[in-house]
Amino acid sequence: MFTGIVQAVGRIRDNEPIGDGLRIDVEAPELGLDTVKVGDSIAINGACMTVVEVNEKRFKVDVSAESLDKTCNLDGWGYVNLEKAMKLGDRLDGHIVSGHVDGVGEIDVFEPKAESYQLVVRCPLKLSKFLAYKGSIAVNGVSLTINSVEDTPGGCRVAINLIPHTVEHTSFKYSKKRDLVNIEVDTVARYIERMVSLIDHK
What we know:
Blueprint: E1 8-18, E2 21-27, E3 41-44, E4 47-54, E5 58-63, H1 65-70, E6 78-84, E7 103-113, E8 116-123, E9 136-139, E10 142-152, E11 155-162, H2 164-168, E12 180-185, H3 187-200
Antiparallel strand pairs: 1-2, 1-6, 2-5, 3-4, 3-6, 4-5, 7-8, 7-12, 8-11, 9-10, 9-12, 10-11
């Protein structure tokens, strides 16, 4: 489990085919890799991956074809948000994040607004029922609060306010319009939708 509080911004430096997936090499000297061992979980842009190699500056993970199909930006080179898995007793400063990406969204708007930044993401239609005003969402692994929701025929547009600290300490500082992003909806919303759907079928 994760919290959606990014611990470091790393950079994918290399990848190599392994089976029908990829082994990616992530440079992350600021993550504190001295406490990471093979088999540990690290969220990369919100996608939970298992460490297969590690040294003081880099780590490697194997990304399956299924994960590549269901996520974005893990098959190239670039900056990524990183978070080590929670330990029992850690503070939950964000919200409960599983590291299981629900879909890929697209940035519609990313621009300064007053003292902050406005981020608008177009999410897949299948996720619309899980997104709500003041609800939680993880975008590229960052725990965020939804400021508004607009349902459209092609999906759901969610608007989010980003404070400068969040932009500066995540890969959002490199973001721009039309970038693809990994989306994970709130775990609690998933359970509520499931319970409601069972009631409706009785």
